[in-house]
Amino acid sequence: MVVFAKKLNKQWRVSFENYERISGFGPLFQEEIDSGQCDVEEAWSRNIKFLEDVFADVSHVRPPQ
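Given the sequence above, the corresponding structure tokens read:
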């Protein structure tokens, strides 16, 4: 997935591109940014929450002994 939201300024675009590069996940809620359903800061927070939830889920997985 790529960063495609049209309403991102240059600084936010770089941040979302770094999010994708580091996490391996394409940023979520880009359509919502462009449609006005959420602002960029809310989308950013929701993406961070998504990563925290994934980490929490994975941290409970027990590897084979």
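The chain has a mean pLDDT of 96. Try to locate this feature in the token string yourself.
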